[in-house]
Amino acid sequence: MTWFHEKSHTMEEEGGHDVSDLHWLKNHPLLLRGGSEPLRRRLYRVLRQAVVDGRLQAGAILPSTRSLADLLEMARNTVLYAYEQLAAEGYVRADRQGTVVCALGPRDTRTRPVATLPPLSGRSGGVQRPRSAEDQLRPFVPGNPGLDAFPWRVWQRVRARAERQTAAHEAGYRGAGGEPELRQAIATYLRASRGVDCGPQQVIVTEGTQEGLALCAMLLADAGDIAWIEHPGYGGAWAALRAAGLRCEPVTVDMHGMAPPSALWRQSPPRLIYTTPSHQYPLGSVLSLPRRLALLAQARAHGAWILEDDYDSEFRHAGPPLAAMQGLEPDAPVAYLGTFSKTMFPGLRLGFVVVPAAVVDRAEGLAGALWPRGRVADQRALAAFIDEGHFTRHLRCMRGLYAERQQALRAALARVWRWPGTVLGGDCGMHLVISLPDAVSDVAVAAAAAEHRLGPRALSSYGTGGPAGFNGLVLGYAHMPAETVGERVRLLVQAVSQADSAKAKAART
């Protein structure tokens, strides 16, 4: 930058264009408004755009830094920064004449076309827009854990210790499968609590279920292959599998889980089968043992892989958690997915996939190529949190708390719910589903509930490839203290009445 400073000094001695040429800058909105962006950056952006647009044409000589600073009533260093940044990026150059605008290539400002962008992908249009951070915290939003009861002090102590013990050279890219301590801790926990048959080398640490699904889709299937997915089901799985180029085939779920008809095996044999057998999302049904064994047998016979998403089975309120499908048979064709977003907290952004031993090398290679690992301290802290027993104690506490909150929700619905409906969800998880009469639109109810700052989700929106064919509300309760549930159910009843009245009024007119 020394050369530019010297030329700027020469330019100021010899002069440049009359500063009246840039009087329009004084009233430019970007320079007049305040905000967090420094004034020097705003001035640079305005000048850069003027060069790009042709308002400052090639060969034009800019005023000296002192002259422009006087005109705009700003510090000279502010102008100097803008000029230096423009010179560094090739928009201007400093020579004996002063600061000269560079030519950016052939341009015809008289016939400049309207700026347009290339089209987006078709598959991006089917992805549902996520809720805002504020909306995510509303009562009844599904999937939110009870962060008010998380042992934050314990976690912060463990996390700080892991940070202190992380060396500088360990802050770079790490092994593709994750930190060895965490892989070992996860494998030990899964063997004891979920009956998963695995060693630590089979555990691939991910940044959540979505990354795990993307890894499985690319590892186990090719673009154009068929993937079966539960209907209604998890929209994130639908999005991840479609993003990998797979053809998703909805398979209707009943009160005992996924039951693909024999004709479907013949007509649309899958390469991947996505299922939530321990607590179907969102209906809450449990895939029966006969159906699990039949699904494993058919998958083997047709050369298909099963993606077992065990997203919240730790929170079973009656009896111990059910054993995973992955451990029912030796070398089962199953990739087992889990996440710590529900058992710990969503912001941790850690999950895992357990793959068969025969595909570990390929899985690690693919994961390393696509998602280089980091976050050493977080992974080591989580490993210590598990190994030292904090994780098990936390889950035991949350099971009791969630059971209490679910019971409060059931009791409140029993007291004030005025419409015929069935409560689904079983003795597990973090949400319940209540059905609505056909005459009441769940989409309209969800919209009315949002006006009361509630966040239930319409069950019909869980359709995979089309409307779900179900009409109801998905009610998350894990993040709602039991003493607040009654009032919030009362507001929900008002929302249903509001939607019901609006439909009746529309029918009369």
Describe the structure.
The chain has 509 residues and is an alpha/beta fold. The protein has three domains: 2-110, Arc Repressor Mutant, subunit A (Orthogonal Bundle); 149-388, Aspartate Aminotransferase, domain 2; 397-508, Aspartate Aminotransferase, domain 1, CATH 3.90.1150. It is built from 17 helices and 15 strands. The protein has helices at 2-14, 29-32, 39-53, 65-72, 76-88, 133-136, 152-164, 180-193, 209-220, 235-243, 262-267, 289-302, 360-370, 376-387, 390-416, 442-451, 482-508; strands at residues 61-62, 92-95, 98-101, 203-206, 226-231, 247-254, 257-258, 272-275, 305-309, 334-339, 351-354, 423-424, 431-435, 457-458, 472-476. Strands 4-11-10-9-8-5-6-7 form an eight-stranded mixed β-sheet, sandwiched between helices. Strands 12-13-15-14 form a four-stranded antiparallel β-sheet, covered by helices on one side. A three-stranded antiparallel β-sheet has the order 1-3-2. The termini are far apart.
